[in-house]
Specification:
The structure holds 2 protein chains of 2 kinds.
Chain A: H1 3-15, H2 23-60, H3 65-93, H4 97-100, H5 107-140, H6 145-157, H7 160-176, H8 183-209, H9 214-222, H10 227-234, H11 239-247, H12 252-284, H13 299-305, H14 311-325, H15 327-334, H16 339-350, H17 353-366, H18 369-386, H19 402-406, H20 411-441, H21 445-454, H22 456-472, H23 481-486, H24 489-511, H25 518-548
Chain B: E1 2-11, E2 15-25, E3 30-34, H1 41-48, E4 56-61, E5 64-65, H2 70-76, E6 77-80, H3 92-102, H4 107-120, H5 136-148, E7 154-158, H6 166-181, E8 185-189, H7 193-199, E9 202-207, E10 210-215, H8 217-224, H9 230-238
Parallel strand pairs in B: 3-8, 3-9, 6-7, 7-8
Antiparallel strand pairs in B: 1-2, 1-4, 4-5, 9-10
The chains are: A mainly alpha, B alpha/beta.
Chain lengths: 551, 241
């Protein structure tokens, strides 16, 4: 087997989490994965429905191709933007780089194998966006077999060019900048920028789509305001060819366009190979060096270090430091708590002024404090449920989990430290959100105070439930910190459970707004009872469960 | 004193890593734990420190049953794991403070020990840096200092000399000897037979989870009835039948 294939095979194997050992464990993992896949279905269904709704009015004026153009371009744009950060992580910052560099491999072979693995994961990303578009379009246009064959060709080749462009940019950055020496700082900045980019795309889309009916798009196209569609297909080389291939499905021209698109894709791979041969080693060699000038402590720092503290305090401090300093953990467990106020500000500043004024009047006059409380509880469940701080508390330890076993801190104290940090982060995020809402809607301080107090059980619920999940499903085997939080089923499961509970509260707040205090008080009492039950379980059995996890 | 009585451990119920191990490491002695790769050394040390639970048998540290009083037992141990790649994103001083807090070391003592050990191991200049930026040997040293801060009664070290520079290696051996002289128990695994020969009061040799020999080097020589090197004796002993 040639070295490129052998390396691709090994990298793929090590990218996929090793299957759990026992049969029972395997079943649990399979069920959890199935659950996650099912929870993605609403997103896919919503996209398919939108495409289906837009198809008829666009087809009436012969502009249905715009859907494919937009879809392919957006899919490519997402792969390109996230690909820049993704490729830097995979090509340069992955732990395997240090092992691969001394092997007798050419730059092109390492880069080729890493590109292939990245591409395979991009196919999974496309499942959420491109697949529903291509399938819905095929069904609505009554396409035959040739369309689906062409669509398969487009699906497989479409992410290549954006990923090559992202790779080229990544290689240039790594070869001619000092990023390599400041990995953590780069990752934290890249993560923050990625998040802003994702929010930006989301709100730009919302602004375009807001309140518009399918007929409005037709009108826009007829009025010649289709510059966005034109821009979309010009975004990446070849998108126009791919779209043409799909639109001319019945004719030989369709296949010709696909062949041209594949040739263009091949050309980009060749460019990557040539550039990789020249640039890859330049950025990769020395990438494992960390930059740090020696720093001794001054007298004051040494005196501070001499101050003794308690075990719980030490564990909390260690937890906070590792969360803040580890980019993957910072993004998924810290920053995520504080994106809500930013999102609210985005919505309030990008939305229609009339709607916002209407909302202000509604909240200011018509909504009772009881309804506001119930909606607040729902929001707290949603906000705290998204944070992975608690549900990855054990998983984050990874291969150094054994330290929890030999250090002389009771297991329950260790769990308490993790839960305290998760609770404080969620509370801080929610308090900031309330602060923003208080300013925007001019809510009285007493209402805010009551809201904060009443939502404490709602904030505690995901923290306790997350800990309980992670103690049972710890993901300790990972070679990359992102896997501990990104591919952690406990986090996804918690998000779904907490999200459903939060949505139920908000729905009840809207549905039973005239029911007085009963629903809100019931929700608070119910959550307090559930929290008490969860805490009791963790206090009673948590230490045993933690002790049972093998290091 | 460390006491292991009929300790067994197997992985996945199939592979027997430690087989009916009975071993005593008396206070005031340095005992080297030898064996080829995969012999069960690290598994034994992990069971002693509470990282792994034995399938059966009992483990006592200074008369305390590990299973019954895990925290009191752990407080007596200073453990140096085989890999020093832990808490890499903490600064050296933060790690030491963390360890001192967990082992409840008082303010004056901790400051004095941090200053003393970081000076002796030449680590004072990098205490403000993250452990991530340390070399392997420096990481080994910071973990070692962390294990010394609470002045443990029992020392358990997994390959402690790996990666240390000659000066630090010499210093560690000096400290081990001095601590054993004060009545502390020192139990460490090593691949370096020369070190075992010169440093240890006794050696225990394990192979395929079973204890093959436990005694002084002199007793081992008697056992072989020849003045052979420890290396030769070791190879002969662990050679597969």
């Amino acid at each position: 087997m040639n070295r490129y294939l052998a390396l691709s095979r090994i990298l793929l194997k090590s990218s996929i989490t090793p299957p759990a050992s026992g049969r029972h464990e395997r079943t649990k993992t399979a069920l959890l994965m199935l659950f996650v896949a099912v929870s993605m279905l609403p997103l896919v269904a919503a996209l398919a429905l939108t495409v289906s709704k837009l198809y008829d009015p666009l087809a009436a004026i012969g502009q249905q191709g715009v859907l494919l153009g937009f879809g392919c371009a957006i899919s490519g744009l997402i792969i390109f933007i996230f690909g820049i950060f993704y490729t830097i992580n995979v090509y340069y910052f992955a732990q395997d780089v240090e092992f691969l560099l001394p092997l007798p491999l050419k730059a092109g072979e390492i880069l080729g194998a890493k590109f292939t693995i990245t591409l395979l994961f991009e196919y999974l990303t496309q499942l959420l966006i491109l697949a529903p578009l291509l399938v819905t379009f095929g069904i609505r246009s009554g396409a035959g077999l040739s369309y689906y064959l062409l669509a398969a060709g487009v699906y497989l080749s479409l992410p290549v060019i954006p990923l090559v462009l992202a790779s080229l940019l990544a290689m240039a950055l790594m070869s001619y900048s000092s990023i390599a020496r400041h990995k953590d700082r780069f990752r934290i900045w890249a993560g923050g920028l990625g998040l802003i980019a994702a929010l930006g795309v989301q709100f730009a889309m919302q602004k375009v789509m807001a309140g518009r009916k399918p007929e409005d798009f037709v009108r826009l196209l007829q009025e010649g305001k289709n510059s966005l569609a034109d821009w979309a297909v010009q975004l990446f080389p070849g998108v126009r060819l791919a779209v043409k291939a799909l639109l001319q499905q019945g004719a030989a021209a369709g296949w010709l366009n696909l062949v041209l698109f594949l040739l263009l894709t091949g050309l980009f791979i060749l460019i990557l190979r040539l550039a990789g041969g020249a640039l890859y080693f330049r950025g990769a060699v020395g990438g494992s060096e960390s930059y740090a000038a020696h720093r001794a402590l001054n007298a004051a720092e040494m005196a501070e270090a001499g101050r003794s503290g308690g075990q719980l305090g030490a564990l909390i401090l260690k937890e906070i430091r590792l969360l803040v300093r580890t980019p993957a953990f910072f993004m998924n467990c810290v920053l995520v708590n504080f994106i809500w106020p930013v999102m609210i500000l985005f919505v309030m500043t990008s939305g229609e002024q009339e709607d916002i004024e209407g909302l202000r009047r509604l909240v200011g006059s018509n909504v009772s404090l009881a309804t506001l409380l119930l909606a607040g509880i729902g929001a707290a469940l949603l906000v705290a449920g998204v944070s992975g701080a608690s549900a990855s508390g054990i998983s984050r330890e990874g291969s150094q989990f054994f330290t929890s076993k030999y250090l002389p801190a009771p297991y329950l104290t260790q769990l308490k430290a993790k839960m305290t940090v998760a609770f404080l982060l969620a509370l801080a995020g929610f308090a900031l959100l309330l602060g923003v809402l208080a300013v925007l809607f001019q809510l009285p301080a007493a209402a805010i105070g009551l809201l904060l107090l009443a939502t404490l059980p709602a904030i505690a619920f995901p923290v306790l439930a997350g800990m309980l999940l992670d103690v049972h499903f710890p993901k300790l085997v990972w070679d990359n910190e992102y896997r501990a939080v990104k591919q952690n089923m406990s986090i996804v499961l918690l998000m779904v459970i907490s999200g459903l509970a939060g949505a139920a509260c908000i729905w009840m707040a809207l549905r039973y707004s005239a029911a007085g205090w009963t629903p809100a008080v019931t929700a608070v009492l119910l959550l307090m009872a559930v929290d008490a039950g969860l805490y009791f379980m963790l206090a009673k059995k948590g230490a045993d469960w933690l002790a049972a996890i093998s290091a | 004193m460390i006491e292991l009585v009929q300790v067994n451990k197997s992985y996945s119920g199939k592979v027997k890593a430690v087989d009916d191990l009975t071993l005593t490491v008396p206070a005031g002695e340095i005992v080297g734990f030898l064996g080829p790769n995969g012999a069960g050394k690290t598994t034994t040390l992990k069971m002693l420190t509470g990282i792994l639970n034995p399938d059966s048998g009992s483990i006592r540290i200074n008369g305390l049953e590990l299973h019954r009083e895990p925290i009191r037992v752990k407080e007596q141990i200073g453990f140096v794991p085989d890999s020093p790649d832990i808490f890499l994103r903490l600064k050296g001083i933060e790690y030491l403070r963390f360890m001192a807090d967990l082992y409840r070391v008082g303010g004056a003592e901790r400051r004095q020990r941090i200053e003393e050990y970081t000076a002796r191991f030449e680590m004072a200049e990098v205490l403000g840096n993250k452990i991530q930026s340390y070399s392997h040997g420096m990481r080994q040293k910071i973990v070692l200092i962390g294990a010394l801060l609470h002045d443990p009664a029992v020392w358990i070290l997994d390959e402690p000399l790996t990666g240390l520079d000659p000066k630090s290696s010499f210093l560690l051996k000096e400290i081990l000897r001095s601590e054993a002289g004060k009545g502390k128990t020192v139990f460490f695994s090593t691949h370096v037979l020369d070190v075992a020969e010169r440093l240890c009061d006794r050696v225990a040799i394990i192979h395929k989870g079973r204890l093959l020999f436990d005694g002084t080097i002199a007793a081992m020589r008697d056992h072989f009835k020849a003045d052979e090197s420890l290396e030769k004796m070791f190879l002969e002993m662990t050679e597969d039948e």
